[in-house]
Amino acid sequence: METNLLITLQNYGFSEKEAKVYLTVLELGTSIASTIARRSEIKRVTVYTILDDLKRKWIANETTKDDVKFYSVISPDILLKQLEQKFESFKEKVPELLALAEKFGNKTRIQFFEGLEGMKKVYAELLTSKDHSIRSFLWSHEAHPVLRDYLNEHFVPQRVKYKIKAKVICCESEDNKSYHKVNKKNLIEVKFIKDDIFKLSCGIDIYAGNKVSIVLFSKEEMSGLIVTSKRFHDTLASIFDFIWVKK
Questions:
Q1: Do residues 26 and 72 lie in contact, with contact meaning Cβ atoms separated by under 8 Å?
Q2: Shortest CA distance to 59 belongs to which of 67, 71, 47?
Q3: Which among 25, 18, 37 is positioned nearest to 75, based on CA atoms?
Q4: With contact defined as beta carbons under 8 Å apart, do 199 and 141 qualify?
Q5: What is the Cα Rg of the chain in Å?
Q6: What is the pLDDT of residues 130-174, one digit of tens each?
Q7: How far is CA 55 from the centre of its chain?
Q8: Where does residue 141 fall: left (phi above 0), alpha (psi -120 to 50 degrees), or beta otherwise?
Q9: What is the spatial distance between Cα 242 and Cα 157, in angstroms, rounded to a whole number?
Q10: Among 17-31, 137-151, 176-190, where is mean pLDDT lowest?
Q11: Each residue of 41-69: pLDDT tens digit?
Q12: What angle do CA 112, 115, 119 make, to 5 degrees?
């Protein structure tokens, strides 16, 4: 099963197992749950639950013949239309949502996220920084491979697409140096500080004029915070700019 197709579906709201089941049924055309379970390598009882969820979302269909249930899924072009309709519906409500957020604009707000899906939400927030550069203190440890794939294949291309510039200060480790050498992207500047005096076990992103995210990247601790506070943002931005200029 193509990893890039799984990641694409997950980027648009599918869980990992939902994506596997959808692609399996799409390939099979119409099939019974036991075959879907075997081909997707997911337990049959779990496949039934996933198919029920996809039915509720109008993505999967169920028919019965001779007391045997058969399943199929909607084609990718119909799925695209569904996603476009959801996007347009949400887009219409954005002014109302922003007006609601304005009522609490001066209050500090802290949001907690965990797991891969949570991290995707943290990085989706960074893409709201269209009128500001992102200032980043980069972690010194290797990111989990699944998360790194998401960042390289989805987040970074989206950031470049939206023309969001980034400045990064990170430890002068071999991992960081080789990563930025191989994965050098447009709209990014990097400065290294010797890792014997600058050690980070997390990432810090300062963005959007009033937000700061703090993230942990290992499989065991994959989680993040988003702090919405103008003063907290400006304080860390000032520290970042001081280090950037001195370096």
A1: no
A2: 71
A3: 25
A4: no
A5: 22
A6: 778 899 998 756 677 888 888 888 888 889 888 899 999 987 766
A7: 25
A8: beta
A9: 29
A10: 176-190
A11: 999 999 999 999 999 989 999 999 888 99
A12: 65
Question: What integer is the mean pLDDT of 171-192?
Answer: 69
Q: Which residue has the tokens 């990097």?
A: 190
CA dihedral 208, 206, 156, 179 (to 10 degrees): 170
| Both tokens assigned to 214 | 């703090």
